[in-house]
Fold:
Amino acid sequence: MLDTTLSSYGEDVFSEEAIAKYLPRQVAAKLLATMRDAKPLDPSIADAVARGMKDWALEKGATHFTHWFQPMTGGTAEKHDAFLEPAGLAKAVNRFSGKNLIGGEADASSFPSGGLRSTFEARGYTAWDPTSPAFIKRHENGATLCIPTAFCSYTGAALDMKTPLLRSVQAVTRATERLMRKFGRPKAHVSITLGAEQEYFLVDRDFYLRRPDLLQTGRTVFGAAPAKHQQLDDHYYGSIRPRVLKFMTEVEDRLWRLGIPAKTRHNEVAPAQFELAPMFEDLNLAVDHNMLVMEILRTTAESNGLVCLLHEKPFEGVNGSGKHCNWSIAYGGKNLLSPGDNPRDNAIFLTFLSAIIRAIDLHADMLRMSTAGAGNDHRLGANEAPPAVISVFLGDELSSVMSEIETGESKSRHGKSVMKIGVDTMPPLPKDATDRNRTSPFAFTGNKFEFRAPGSSQNCAASQTVLNTIVAESIDAICDKLDAAGGDFNEELQKLLQRLIRKHKRVLFSGDGYAKEWMAEAGKRGLPNLHDTLEAIAPMTDKANMDLFARYGVLSPEEMKSRHEIASADYQNRIVIEGKVALEIARAMIRPVVADEFSRLATAIGQATKDGLKVGITGLKALSLKLGAGLDDLHVKCERLEKAIFRGGHAKILQSMAELRSTVDRLEHLVDDSRWPLPKYREMLFVY
Ligand code: ADP
Ligand code: MG
Structure:
C-alpha cells in the first residue's frame, strides 16, 4: 500500500523543508548540520536565518515574535515583540534581525530564581536553541513566531528547565560515545529519545467555574466519592464520547500542524480521564513538544466548553494522572536498549542495561527528587500509581539472564552453560512479556525504560535531566573500570557486569509495587522511601549529589541550591493556598447552607411539636442532631485549619485539611442536594 502524505503535518514549523525554501543553500546546510548533528552553530549565519524565518512567518500571518522558554514556574513563558518598526511618519516596516533571533533580554525579576539573581541585576537572557525548530502559534486574530530558547542569568547560571536538560544530553552523549569506542564501534550520532504519555481529566467548564478549589488549585479539596466511580473498569479503553472525540481531533489537528506526532488517544482508568501519547522523538524536542501538548490540551478544552485538568490528583478516591516518560538511547539510529541478535550487540545491550541499573540503585534519591511536587505527593506512595520507592522492573526473561550472568550458571536452558558475554547470543526476549507489571516506577518495556513516577503536570525535563546525568556517570564508571583492567575485553566485561549485578540487584523488583510487603522488603534492602516533597527534594543539597551534577556540568552547586529553594517555596506556597481555599469554601459556602438547613429544621421541629404532630418529629430530630453535630465539627475544624495556616507547617495544614474534608464530605450526603453549593463528583466525573 502506498503511504499518502498528511499535508498539514508540520506546516506551522520552520521545518527542514521551510529551511530549504526560505534560506540560501549554504546557510540552510549549516543550520541543518546544527539541528541534525548538534554541530555548533556558526553565528555568522544568524542574519540570513532571521531573514528567511521572518519571510516564512509573515506568510503564515505572524505579526509578532517571541522567545519561548521554560522558567522555573513549571510552565512556559513568552514576551511578544512586533516585527513592526517605524520608518518615517505614519510608515512602518517589518524587521527581524539575527540579533533578535539569537538572544533576548528579559526583565525577569519576577521569575523564580531561588536567589540566583537579585532584583538589582534583574536581567535574564534568552538564547536561541537551534535544535528545536521555531514554530507558529495561532490565535483568533493572527499568529506569533515562537523561537525556543534557553533562559539564564547575566553570569550564565541556568534559570530554566531546558539549560540543564541540554547539558545532561551532552553528558550522556559523551559517555555513550566513550563506551561505544570501547566496543570498537565507529563514531555515530547519539540520540536520547523520549516518548511522554500524557494523562489528563476533562470536566465541563460550567462545573469548573463553580468550584473555587479547582479554579485556584487545580484539585478538589472537598467532594464525597460517588457510589460508582472506577470500580467496574468500564471507562478504560471505553468508546470515546462524541464531545470528547471532537475535542481530541481538534487537539490532534493543532498538534500535527506543529509537527507533534500525537499518535494514541484513549479513555483512561478513572471516569473523565484520558491519555494522549505521541511517537517518541529526540529528547529536547520531545520535551518542548510535551509543553505544547499541555498548552494545547488546555486551550482546546476551553474552546469546547471543557476544562482540561493536568493536576496529578484532581479527584480523591479515583486514579490520578501521571506522565510516563519512555526513554532510550540510540546510536547511529539504532536503539541501544533493543536486545540484539548477535553476541556483540548483546554485549552492548547488557552493558548499557547494567549501567542503568547501577545508576538507578546509586541515585534513586535524585530520580525520586525529580518527580517531587505538591500535586504528585498525592500519587506517589499513596496506594496508587508507582510507589515512592524507586525500583527497576526487568521482566522474567531478562531477570533470569541477569541472574545467569551474576551466578555464572544457567538455570533454565538445558545443555548449555552460562551465556558468555560477547560470545553467545541472548535468548530472544518476547517483547510483550516484558511489561505485565504496571506497578513498577521504572520498568524495562522491551526496548526502552518507562519511568512512571513523573506527574501529569510536570515538565519532563526534570526527570530526564537526572536520568541522563546519573546514567552518564554510570557509563563512565564502567569505562573507567574497563580502562583499568588489562586482560581480554570480553572476559573483563563479563566479570565487571557480574560484579555490578551482584552489587546493585537490590534495586531490581518484579513483584507488586503497591504491596505492603514490598515496602517492608524495600526498607530491608536499604532503598530510600521519600514520602513527601520536602523529604524528596532534600537530596539536592547533599554534597555527593551536588558534586556529581557539577562534575557533569549539568548544575553547579549554586544552581542546585537555588532549585532546591524554588521547589521548597513552591511546595509550601501551594499547600498554604490549598489550605486557604479550603477554609474559605468551608466557611463561606458550606457553613451558611448547613446553618440555614439546621435552623429550618429547628423551626420545623418547634412547629411540629407545637402542633402536636404524631409523626415526623423523630426523623426531623435525628437529622437535626446530625446536622448540628456536623455544624459544630465544621466550626472546630475550620478554627484548627486557620491556626495551622498561620502558625503550623505544611504537615499540620495537610492534616487539618484532611480532617475538615471528612466533615464536609459527610455533610454533602446530609444537606438538601439542590442547595449543596459545589458541583459533586458524580456530576463532574460523569456529565460531560
Ligand atoms: P504503553 O501505554 O504500553 O506504555 P504507549 O504506546 O502508550 O505504550 O506508549 C509508549 C510510548 O513509548 C510511546 O510514546 C512510544 O513512542 C514510546 N517509545 C517507543 N520506543 C521508544 C524509544 N526507543 N525511546 C523512547 N520512547 C519510545
Ligand atoms: Mg504507559
In short: The radius of gyration is 28 Å.
